[in-house]
Amino acid sequence: MIIFSGGTGTPKLLNGLREVIPEEEITVVVNTAEDIWLSGNLITPDIDTVLYLLSGRLDTTRWWGVKDDTYRTHEVMKTLGHNEFMMLGDLDRATHIMRSDLIRSGMTLTEAITQLCRSFGVKAKVLPMSNDPVSSMISTPEGKMHFQDFWVGKHGEPDVLEICQEGIENASISPAVLEALENEDEVLIGPSNPITSIGPIIELPGMRDILKNKKVIAVSPIIGTEPVSGPATKLMAARGIEVSSTGVASYYSDFLEHMVLDKRDTADEKRFTDLACDVSRTDTLMKSVSVSSNLSRHILEQFRIM
After folding, report:
1. 106-112 long-range Cβ contacts below 8 angstroms, 24+ apart
2. I need a labelling partner for 283 at 20 to 30 A (CA). Which of 13, 73, 112, 155 fits?
3. What CA–CA distance (Å, rounded) separates 291 from 288?
4. Model-level pTM?
């Protein structure tokens, strides 16, 4: 199975999915539009969350970073006057250094992540969406800024006027992702922010056309009119997309066949019929591995029905 991933929602789902099917059968295609070079190294937040989860290193109290990490390097750099707006742990930084050195040696991002998977003992395939640079840029009254500046540096506080994916028109789906899509009919879109987590993946040139020929299920990241986490409200509104499960489905409507809604969601299922999208409901608020596992079983059952 192929899973499109970004943020923290989809890793929570992966945490349950790997309890239900062998990890070797999972291919995760990960958003790279939130990647950023910082302090001389390439930071790939969404990829690293997946790597750390699957290798048992993830700090699952925050759903980012390495558990029991220390921050001595960050603290010393701060005393020296270096403005590192992202708080990078020492163990986490080791991953960034290794990845960056591999890329400087001539490897593609995909090759570098494959090497990290081997080093971490990760059995699933973890694939960057593209080897080409793409950046989610947020236009605000304070100016245009990278997503990480907006979400981490500014704590998501500025008003959002516009979102664009710089470089997307010249980026290509990575060869490894294309190969995976050629060999797999089922694609699961995780419950991550549709604009800056999943959006960059599906907006890669040619991706929507590929998905039209797949069985695609999405798990809604919205319950009622509120995202489970993250800045989806501001970002969807800036794109003119209704902040609801129906709004997410409309954004995916040219390829989406089925959406899984939370059992508490108040969405009108008739509106999904207008989008030619089937729906089902279960508990999607993944507060435990058991809820994630049950959600995964529900998703697999929907794929069998399709």
Report:
1. 108/174, 109/32, 109/42, 109/44, 109/174, 110/174, 110/175, 110/176
2. 155
3. 5
4. 0.94
